[in-house]
Amino acid sequence: MLECVQGEGGVWPATSAYLKAVEAAVHERGMLLIVDEVQTGFFRNGAPFCFQLAGIETDIVSMAKGIADGFPMGAVAAKAEVADLMRPGDHGSTFGGNPLAAACARATVEALVSEGIGEHVISVGAHLRAALEALPHVVEVRGHGLMLGAQRRRDVPYGRSPARFLRP
Question: Is residue 133 within a helix (H) or strand (E), and if so which, with residue range?
């Protein structure tokens, strides 16, 4: 099980080459590739799911947060041949099995797709990345879409918020 972007601790994306190597190694050994898209899913990185940016194929995907626009919801998706091997109760989520959560998720996903959120995230993310890279004390910007992390120079003291530089 892996995350394509480690969101905690500074937004550290895995490279496409690394993700493809993991996919190959997992499948060579007859194992399942499980990807955690709880933070990265639902267009946060531009694509519907972050694993798609690397062009890998997963066996199981866990998702939450963005799935229902803030309403508590989680889900697990599996390839049909994998899902067929699971017993009832082996998959699902704490907040995924009620009609209201399902309705919220459906409405959210339909809105994200119909409003072209992926393209918007890519555009706004590029603007944010450029603004962050232009800051004098930023030495690196990492991530995809709107899931970005900025590394400041070590000689800049804490307490000086970079947000003040982003105002027009």
Answer: helix 117-133
Q: What letter represents residue 158's amino acid?
A: Y
Q: Where are the strands (E) in the chain, listed by range?
A: 5-6, 12-13, 34-36, 60-64, 74-78, 138-144, 147-152
Q: Which fold has domain 5-117?
A: Aspartate Aminotransferase; domain 2 (3.40.640)
Of the candidates 56, 49, 52, the residue with the CA atom closest to the CA atom of residue 21: 56
**CB count in 10 Å sphere of residue 6:** 16
Question: What pLDDT is stored for residue 60 in this prediction?
Answer: 94
> Lowest mean pLDDT: which of 53-62, 71-80, 154-163?
154-163
Query: What's the DSSP call for residue 66?
Result: G
Q: The pTM is what?
A: 0.81
Cite the residue boundaries of each domain of the chain with CATH code 3.40.640.10: 5-117
